[in-house]
Amino acid sequence: MSAAPAPAIDILTARTYLTSALQQYLGLAGTAISIDFLKVQGRDIWVRVPREDGAAFVGAVSGWVGSGGVAWRIRGKSEWLGSLVAGDGRELFEN
Prior knowledge:
By secondary structure, the chain is α+β, with helices and mostly antiparallel strands. The mean pLDDT is about 80. The chain is about 25% helix and about 10% strand. It has a two-stranded antiparallel sheet. The chain contains two helices and two strands; from the N terminus they run αββα.
């Protein structure tokens, strides 16, 4: 018997989880961090946060575990989108 595949995540659920992580780590100041969603596909999300909030965001998200064992894994971090994807970044915006 195999486990059912994890369901896809939507932007509202992702924002709720990220806000929870930021609030638990940084308190009310964490909820003020601006998060831009660049892409949501399956269980993967691409977000952009202000450079000055990057370290706090990584700390909050990487240490957070939600109900049912939901957790985030950071696959990459860079000031340049092109360095995170192979190519010029166009594949982020193609369906």
